[in-house]
Amino acid sequence: MRHFLTLNDFSKDEILNIINLAREIKKEAKQKEYKPYLKEQTLAMIFEKSSTRTRVSFEVGMHQLGGKALFLSSNDLQIGRGEPIKDTARVISRMVDMAMLRVNRHETLEEFAKFSLVPVINGLSDKFHPVQLMADYLTMLEFASGDKIAYVGDGNNMAHSWLMLVSKLGLELRIATPKGYEVDEQILKQALKNAEISGAKIHITNDIKEAVSNVDVVTTDTWVSMGQEAEKERRLKEFDGYCVDEKLMQIASKNALFLHCLPAYRGYEVSEAVFEAHADEIFAEAENRLHAQKGVMVWLDKNKGNQ
Ligand code: CP
Ligand code: NVA
């Protein structure tokens, strides 16, 4: 049985297969043809953190696939009162067909997956947000962008997820973070190892211009991730100068895309003008969460018998 915890667990072919499946299901959905790929199946969705897109897209996605999604806040579950995650996994996975978790610590997901009888999907952890990257890549294909990507900002779960996507698919990624906010060293090491096989190009810098020059896609994320609220003041100061504004976009390729996983904080990681000028692709990206995740869920269901 396969889980979807990080793209590092997937081959290039598998990632592209999921994307193709998502495109096919999206095409059908656009014609209002909702095939019951997951008829009468149930997805448990456990949230330790807030969400707009992840919650709605998984819930609607499951409904359109002929199944049902259960929204479970960790505060309301017995986890909140100390029931071990491994017991929670053993109970819930006997009753549902798939589980999606949004967690503070990636290790919680790994523990849940270890004890789960059904496929587990990462709906965001402190380390990775892989379902977001499936939507982002689907959007890049739809807008026919090139393969050179710049990520500007915090070396966080989104930066790590870009490293995994790019290193698996053989694309090019430049990451510019302020000093002290670089990506995790182990994750970078893994990405560089993947890049040796895929031919991906990865460049890490503190210089935003060096990162963005002539790229086809510019992307960023909040400077203050969920759980980092106490560091907000310090972070806003230390990220000064890392805003994606019109001046920065001008040194990217002509017609470069701007992607943002959302929620966006205008005036911080992105200017209002850049955000609004690129609203078409940003909201297509958000919509693609729905389609990409259907691809992920249907693929996991099809591969339930495989190691
Ligand atoms: N991008 C994303 O995961 O959004 P939510 O936090 O609203 O789910
Ligand atoms: N890096 C952000 C992504 C939100 C979708 C966070 O973890 O809060």
Please, could you describe this protein's structure?
With 307 residues, the protein is of the alpha/beta class. It has twelve helices and nine strands. The strands form two sheets. The protein has a five-stranded parallel beta sheet. A four-stranded parallel beta sheet has the order 2-1-3-4, sandwiched between helices. The radius of gyration is 19 Å and the shape is globular. It starts with 11 loop residues before the first helix and ends in a 5-residue tail after the last helix. The mean pLDDT is 97. The structure holds phosphoric acid mono(formamide)ester and norvaline. Residues 51-54, 124, 132, 261-262 line the site of phosphoric acid mono(formamide)ester. Norvaline binds next to helix 6.
Summarize the structure.
This protein has 12 helices and 9 strands.
Characterize the biggest β-sheet: 5 strands, parallel
Please estimate the helix content: 40-55%
| Unreliable parts | none
CATH topology label of the largest domain: Rossmann fold
Number of separate domains: 2
What is the chain-wise order of helices and strands?
Answer: HEHEHEHEHEHEHEHEHHEHH
The termini sit apart by: 5 Å
How many helical elements? 12
Ions, cofactors and other ligands present here are:
phosphoric acid mono(formamide)ester, norvaline
What is the molecular shape? Answer: globular
- CATH architectural label of the largest domain: 3-Layer(aba) Sandwich
Report the CATH superfamily of the largest domain.
Aspartate/ornithine carbamoyltransferase
Radius of gyration: 19 Å
State the strand order across the main sheet: 7-6-5-8-9
Number of strands: 9
CATH hierarchy, class of the largest domain: Alpha Beta
**Proportion of residues in β-strands:** 5-15%
How confident overall, as mean pLDDT?
Answer: 97
Class based on secondary structure composition and strand pairing = alpha/beta
